[in-house]
Specification:
6-stranded antiparallel sheet; globular; Ubiquitin-like (UB roll); Elongation Factor Tu (Ef-tu), domain 3; 7 helices; Rossmann fold; alpha/beta
Length: about 325
Protein backbone atom coordinates (compact mmCIF):
# COMPACT_ATOMS: atom_id res chain seq x y z
CA UNK A 1 0.00 0.00 0.00
CA UNK A 2 1.25 3.47 -0.85
CA UNK A 3 0.13 6.94 0.19
CA UNK A 4 -0.09 10.11 -1.88
CA UNK A 5 2.16 12.98 -0.75
CA UNK A 6 1.44 16.47 -2.10
CA UNK A 7 4.47 18.77 -1.95
CA UNK A 8 3.44 22.43 -2.08
CA UNK A 9 6.53 24.51 -2.86
CA UNK A 10 7.23 28.13 -1.95
CA UNK A 11 6.51 29.29 -5.52
CA UNK A 12 3.07 27.65 -5.52
CA UNK A 13 4.00 24.61 -7.62
CA UNK A 14 2.51 21.37 -6.30
CA UNK A 15 3.84 17.93 -7.17
CA UNK A 16 2.49 14.58 -6.02
CA UNK A 17 4.48 11.46 -5.22
CA UNK A 18 3.67 8.03 -3.83
CA UNK A 19 5.34 6.85 -0.63
CA UNK A 20 5.18 3.47 1.05
CA UNK A 21 4.89 3.30 4.87
CA UNK A 22 8.36 1.75 5.18
CA UNK A 23 10.31 4.49 3.34
CA UNK A 24 10.98 8.04 4.37
CA UNK A 25 9.20 10.81 2.49
CA UNK A 26 12.57 12.22 1.42
CA UNK A 27 13.65 8.86 -0.03
CA UNK A 28 10.32 8.56 -1.86
CA UNK A 29 10.76 12.07 -3.28
CA UNK A 30 14.28 11.34 -4.52
CA UNK A 31 13.13 8.06 -6.02
CA UNK A 32 10.60 10.04 -8.09
CA UNK A 33 12.96 12.82 -9.16
CA UNK A 34 12.16 15.52 -6.60
CA UNK A 35 15.26 16.62 -4.70
CA UNK A 36 14.07 17.78 -1.29
CA UNK A 37 16.97 19.72 0.35
CA UNK A 38 19.04 17.27 2.39
CA UNK A 39 22.40 17.23 4.12
CA UNK A 40 22.63 14.50 6.71
CA UNK A 41 19.67 12.05 6.26
CA UNK A 42 20.11 11.31 9.98
CA UNK A 43 17.73 13.85 11.54
CA UNK A 44 20.64 15.95 12.80
CA UNK A 45 20.84 19.07 10.60
CA UNK A 46 17.25 20.22 10.01
CA UNK A 47 17.90 21.00 6.33
CA UNK A 48 14.89 18.95 5.20
CA UNK A 49 12.48 20.54 7.68
CA UNK A 50 9.01 21.05 6.18
CA UNK A 51 5.49 21.59 7.49
CA UNK A 52 2.85 18.85 7.32
CA UNK A 53 -0.52 20.52 6.75
CA UNK A 54 -2.55 17.33 6.61
CA UNK A 55 -2.26 13.60 7.10
CA UNK A 56 -0.97 11.05 9.58
CA UNK A 57 2.69 10.13 9.77
CA UNK A 58 5.43 8.69 11.95
CA UNK A 59 8.08 11.27 12.86
CA UNK A 60 10.67 8.65 13.72
CA UNK A 61 12.90 8.66 16.80
CA UNK A 62 16.35 9.24 15.28
CA UNK A 63 16.32 13.02 15.03
CA UNK A 64 17.76 15.42 17.61
CA UNK A 65 16.14 18.46 19.25
CA UNK A 66 18.46 20.89 17.48
CA UNK A 67 17.01 19.68 14.16
CA UNK A 68 13.36 19.53 15.29
CA UNK A 69 12.20 20.72 18.68
CA UNK A 70 9.30 19.22 20.61
CA UNK A 71 7.33 22.43 20.09
CA UNK A 72 7.96 22.39 16.33
CA UNK A 73 6.87 18.76 16.10
CA UNK A 74 3.69 19.62 18.02
CA UNK A 75 2.93 22.41 15.54
CA UNK A 76 3.28 20.08 12.56
CA UNK A 77 6.86 20.53 11.41
CA UNK A 78 8.58 17.38 10.17
CA UNK A 79 11.98 16.20 8.99
CA UNK A 80 11.30 14.51 5.67
CA UNK A 81 14.43 12.37 6.11
CA UNK A 82 12.68 10.74 9.10
CA UNK A 83 8.98 11.15 8.27
CA UNK A 84 7.07 8.05 7.15
CA UNK A 85 3.54 8.52 5.84
CA UNK A 86 0.67 6.62 7.43
CA UNK A 87 -1.98 8.25 5.20
CA UNK A 88 -2.15 10.71 2.33
CA UNK A 89 -0.34 13.90 3.35
CA UNK A 90 0.12 17.51 2.29
CA UNK A 91 3.63 18.84 2.97
CA UNK A 92 4.60 22.50 2.59
CA UNK A 93 8.20 22.81 1.38
CA UNK A 94 9.90 26.14 2.25
CA UNK A 95 11.88 26.43 -0.99
CA UNK A 96 10.97 26.91 -4.65
CA UNK A 97 10.32 24.02 -6.99
CA UNK A 98 13.45 24.95 -8.99
CA UNK A 99 15.62 24.33 -5.94
CA UNK A 100 14.18 20.82 -5.79
CA UNK A 101 14.77 20.34 -9.51
CA UNK A 102 11.15 20.01 -10.45
CA UNK A 103 8.55 22.13 -12.23
CA UNK A 104 4.80 22.13 -12.92
CA UNK A 105 3.58 19.04 -14.72
CA UNK A 106 2.27 19.55 -18.28
CA UNK A 107 -0.71 17.81 -19.85
CA UNK A 108 -2.42 17.60 -23.23
CA UNK A 109 -6.20 17.32 -23.43
CA UNK A 110 -9.16 18.23 -25.61
CA UNK A 111 -12.28 20.29 -25.02
CA UNK A 112 -15.21 18.07 -24.05
CA UNK A 113 -17.73 20.88 -23.48
CA UNK A 114 -17.87 24.67 -23.62
CA UNK A 115 -20.93 26.85 -23.18
CA UNK A 116 -22.10 30.17 -21.78
CA UNK A 117 -23.66 29.89 -18.33
CA UNK A 118 -24.48 33.60 -18.59
CA UNK A 119 -23.30 36.66 -20.48
CA UNK A 120 -20.44 36.91 -17.98
CA UNK A 121 -19.44 33.30 -17.33
CA UNK A 122 -18.17 30.46 -19.51
CA UNK A 123 -18.15 26.82 -18.42
CA UNK A 124 -15.27 24.81 -19.88
CA UNK A 125 -14.58 21.10 -19.51
CA UNK A 126 -11.53 19.35 -20.91
CA UNK A 127 -10.76 15.66 -21.04
CA UNK A 128 -7.86 13.40 -21.95
CA UNK A 129 -6.16 10.15 -21.09
CA UNK A 130 -3.23 12.10 -19.64
CA UNK A 131 -5.53 13.83 -17.16
CA UNK A 132 -6.13 10.53 -15.38
CA UNK A 133 -2.70 11.20 -13.86
CA UNK A 134 -3.55 14.80 -12.92
CA UNK A 135 -3.76 15.32 -9.16
CA UNK A 136 -4.39 18.61 -7.37
CA UNK A 137 -5.61 19.99 -4.07
CA UNK A 138 -9.18 21.34 -4.24
CA UNK A 139 -8.91 25.11 -4.68
CA UNK A 140 -5.75 25.10 -6.82
CA UNK A 141 -5.39 26.35 -10.39
CA UNK A 142 -3.55 25.58 -13.62
CA UNK A 143 -2.22 27.63 -16.50
CA UNK A 144 -4.29 26.90 -19.59
CA UNK A 145 -2.67 27.57 -22.94
CA UNK A 146 -4.71 29.78 -25.28
CA UNK A 147 -4.89 27.88 -28.59
CA UNK A 148 -3.33 29.77 -31.48
CA UNK A 149 -1.04 31.77 -29.22
CA UNK A 150 1.93 31.34 -26.91
CA UNK A 151 0.05 32.82 -23.96
CA UNK A 152 -1.55 31.13 -20.97
CA UNK A 153 -4.27 32.10 -18.52
CA UNK A 154 -4.67 30.93 -14.92
CA UNK A 155 -7.95 29.30 -13.90
CA UNK A 156 -9.03 27.46 -10.78
CA UNK A 157 -10.51 24.00 -11.12
CA UNK A 158 -14.26 24.09 -10.52
CA UNK A 159 -14.47 20.31 -10.16
CA UNK A 160 -12.39 17.36 -9.09
CA UNK A 161 -10.77 15.18 -11.72
CA UNK A 162 -13.09 12.35 -12.73
CA UNK A 163 -12.34 9.85 -15.49
CA UNK A 164 -9.76 12.18 -17.00
CA UNK A 165 -12.06 15.22 -17.09
CA UNK A 166 -11.86 18.56 -15.22
CA UNK A 167 -13.92 21.74 -15.41
CA UNK A 168 -13.47 25.50 -15.03
CA UNK A 169 -15.59 28.63 -14.60
CA UNK A 170 -14.15 31.40 -16.78
CA UNK A 171 -15.14 35.03 -16.76
CA UNK A 172 -16.23 36.21 -20.20
CA UNK A 173 -14.03 39.29 -20.67
CA UNK A 174 -14.85 41.43 -23.74
CA UNK A 175 -11.73 41.34 -25.89
CA UNK A 176 -10.10 38.78 -23.64
CA UNK A 177 -7.80 36.38 -25.44
CA UNK A 178 -9.19 33.21 -23.85
CA UNK A 179 -12.76 34.55 -23.79
CA UNK A 180 -12.64 35.35 -27.51
CA UNK A 181 -11.36 31.88 -28.31
CA UNK A 182 -13.97 30.12 -26.19
CA UNK A 183 -16.95 32.17 -27.39
CA UNK A 184 -16.02 32.49 -31.06
CA UNK A 185 -13.92 29.50 -32.11
CA UNK A 186 -13.78 26.70 -29.54
CA UNK A 187 -15.52 23.41 -30.18
CA UNK A 188 -15.47 19.92 -28.72
CA UNK A 189 -12.31 18.08 -29.71
CA UNK A 190 -10.05 21.14 -29.88
CA UNK A 191 -6.67 20.57 -28.21
CA UNK A 192 -5.62 22.44 -25.10
CA UNK A 193 -2.54 22.31 -22.87
CA UNK A 194 -2.36 22.89 -19.14
CA UNK A 195 0.46 23.18 -16.64
CA UNK A 196 0.11 22.73 -12.90
CA UNK A 197 -1.29 22.36 -10.37
CA UNK A 198 -0.32 25.65 -8.76
CA UNK A 199 -1.23 27.82 -5.80
CA UNK A 200 -1.35 27.84 -2.02
CA UNK A 201 -5.12 28.43 -1.92
CA UNK A 202 -6.55 24.99 -1.24
CA UNK A 203 -8.73 23.16 1.23
CA UNK A 204 -6.93 22.24 4.43
CA UNK A 205 -8.01 19.66 6.97
CA UNK A 206 -11.32 20.84 8.46
CA UNK A 207 -10.78 21.30 12.18
CA UNK A 208 -13.25 24.12 12.94
CA UNK A 209 -16.12 25.98 11.24
CA UNK A 210 -15.47 27.34 7.75
CA UNK A 211 -16.59 30.62 6.21
CA UNK A 212 -16.24 30.57 2.43
CA UNK A 213 -16.46 33.88 0.54
CA UNK A 214 -16.66 33.91 -3.25
CA UNK A 215 -16.77 36.83 -5.68
CA UNK A 216 -17.90 36.19 -9.25
CA UNK A 217 -15.98 33.34 -10.89
CA UNK A 218 -14.08 33.11 -7.60
CA UNK A 219 -16.81 30.56 -6.94
CA UNK A 220 -14.82 28.00 -8.97
CA UNK A 221 -12.36 26.79 -6.31
CA UNK A 222 -15.19 26.45 -3.80
CA UNK A 223 -17.23 24.10 -5.97
CA UNK A 224 -14.15 21.89 -6.23
CA UNK A 225 -13.70 22.09 -2.44
CA UNK A 226 -17.38 21.26 -1.89
CA UNK A 227 -17.09 18.20 -4.13
CA UNK A 228 -14.29 16.96 -1.88
CA UNK A 229 -16.21 17.78 1.30
CA UNK A 230 -19.28 15.98 -0.06
CA UNK A 231 -17.11 12.88 -0.54
CA UNK A 232 -15.44 12.91 2.87
CA UNK A 233 -18.12 14.62 4.98
CA UNK A 234 -17.60 17.20 7.70
CA UNK A 235 -18.72 17.50 11.29
CA UNK A 236 -18.06 21.24 11.26
CA UNK A 237 -20.53 23.89 10.01
CA UNK A 238 -19.68 25.39 6.62
CA UNK A 239 -21.20 28.56 5.22
CA UNK A 240 -20.62 30.06 1.78
CA UNK A 241 -21.47 33.64 0.81
CA UNK A 242 -21.41 34.16 -2.95
CA UNK A 243 -21.38 37.75 -4.22
CA UNK A 244 -21.79 39.07 -7.76
CA UNK A 245 -22.41 42.43 -9.44
CA UNK A 246 -25.54 41.73 -11.50
CA UNK A 247 -28.33 39.17 -11.51
CA UNK A 248 -27.02 37.51 -14.67
CA UNK A 249 -23.65 36.93 -12.94
CA UNK A 250 -25.24 34.37 -10.59
CA UNK A 251 -24.36 30.90 -11.89
CA UNK A 252 -24.24 27.35 -10.54
CA UNK A 253 -27.05 28.02 -8.06
CA UNK A 254 -28.56 24.58 -8.74
CA UNK A 255 -25.19 23.04 -7.99
CA UNK A 256 -24.96 24.87 -4.68
CA UNK A 257 -28.45 23.67 -3.80
CA UNK A 258 -27.31 20.12 -4.55
CA UNK A 259 -24.31 20.53 -2.25
CA UNK A 260 -26.61 21.83 0.50
CA UNK A 261 -28.69 18.67 0.12
CA UNK A 262 -25.64 16.37 0.21
CA UNK A 263 -23.58 18.06 2.95
CA UNK A 264 -25.44 18.08 6.24
CA UNK A 265 -23.63 21.06 7.77
CA UNK A 266 -23.40 23.21 4.65
CA UNK A 267 -25.44 26.36 3.99
CA UNK A 268 -25.04 29.22 1.54
CA UNK A 269 -26.38 32.60 0.56
CA UNK A 270 -25.93 34.70 -2.57
CA UNK A 271 -26.05 38.48 -2.90
CA UNK A 272 -26.08 40.93 -5.80
CA UNK A 273 -24.40 44.34 -5.52
CA UNK A 274 -26.55 46.09 -8.13
CA UNK A 275 -29.26 48.01 -6.20
CA UNK A 276 -31.69 47.41 -9.09
CA UNK A 277 -31.34 43.65 -8.68
CA UNK A 278 -34.44 41.49 -8.32
CA UNK A 279 -32.52 39.04 -6.16
CA UNK A 280 -33.72 38.81 -2.52
CA UNK A 281 -30.29 39.60 -1.05
CA UNK A 282 -28.64 42.80 -2.23
CA UNK A 283 -25.35 44.43 -1.38
CA UNK A 284 -21.82 43.20 -0.91
CA UNK A 285 -20.54 40.04 0.74
CA UNK A 286 -19.44 41.98 3.83
CA UNK A 287 -23.03 43.05 4.46
CA UNK A 288 -24.06 39.42 4.89
CA UNK A 289 -21.30 38.17 7.18
CA UNK A 290 -23.01 37.57 10.52
CA UNK A 291 -21.29 37.25 13.93
CA UNK A 292 -22.15 33.55 14.03
CA UNK A 293 -20.20 33.03 10.81
CA UNK A 294 -17.04 34.39 12.47
CA UNK A 295 -17.65 32.28 15.60
CA UNK A 296 -15.62 34.64 17.86
CA UNK A 297 -12.55 33.94 15.74
CA UNK A 298 -12.69 30.14 16.00
CA UNK A 299 -13.11 29.85 12.24
CA UNK A 300 -11.10 29.28 9.08
CA UNK A 301 -11.93 31.86 6.40
CA UNK A 302 -11.42 31.12 2.70
CA UNK A 303 -11.81 34.04 0.29
CA UNK A 304 -11.49 34.14 -3.50
CA UNK A 305 -12.39 37.18 -5.56
CA UNK A 306 -11.12 40.36 -7.22
CA UNK A 307 -8.61 42.50 -5.28
CA UNK A 308 -11.15 45.14 -4.11
CA UNK A 309 -13.28 42.41 -2.57
CA UNK A 310 -10.31 40.83 -0.81
CA UNK A 311 -9.32 44.20 0.64
CA UNK A 312 -12.89 45.01 1.71
CA UNK A 313 -13.35 41.68 3.48
CA UNK A 314 -9.96 41.97 5.21
CA UNK A 315 -10.85 45.44 6.47
CA UNK A 316 -14.32 44.32 7.59
CA UNK A 317 -12.92 41.46 9.68
CA UNK A 318 -10.32 43.76 11.25
CA UNK A 319 -13.07 46.21 12.18
CA UNK A 320 -14.94 43.45 14.00
CA UNK A 321 -11.93 43.04 16.28
CA UNK A 322 -11.78 39.35 15.38
CA UNK A 323 -8.76 37.38 14.21
CA UNK A 324 -9.73 34.11 12.48
CA UNK A 325 -7.54 31.13 13.30
CA UNK A 326 -6.69 30.98 9.59
CA UNK A 327 -7.45 33.38 6.75
CA UNK A 328 -6.69 31.99 3.29
CA UNK A 329 -7.31 34.17 0.26
CA UNK A 330 -6.66 34.37 -3.46
CA UNK A 331 -6.98 37.49 -5.59
CA UNK A 332 -7.64 37.33 -9.30
CA UNK A 333 -7.90 39.87 -12.08
CA UNK A 334 -9.16 39.45 -15.62
CA UNK A 335 -6.72 39.67 -18.53
CA UNK A 336 -7.61 41.43 -21.77
CA UNK A 337 -6.16 40.64 -25.17
Amino acid sequence: MTHSIAFNFEDGVTRFIDASPDETVADAAYRQGINIPLDCRDGACGTCKCFAEAGRYDLGEEYIDDALSVDEARQGFVLTCQMRAQSDCVVRVPVSSDVCRTRPASFEATISAVHLLSDSTIALSIKGEALNKLAFLPGQYVNLGVPGSTQTRAYSFSSLQRDGEVSFLIRNVPGGLMSSFLTEMAKAGDSMTLAGPLGSFYLREIRRPLLLLAGGTGLAPFTAMLEKIAEQGSEQPLHLIYGVTNDFDLVEMDRLEAFAARIANFSFSACVANPDSRHPLKGYVTQHIEPRHLNDGDVDVYLCGPPPMVEAVSQFIREQGIAPVNFYYEKFAASAA
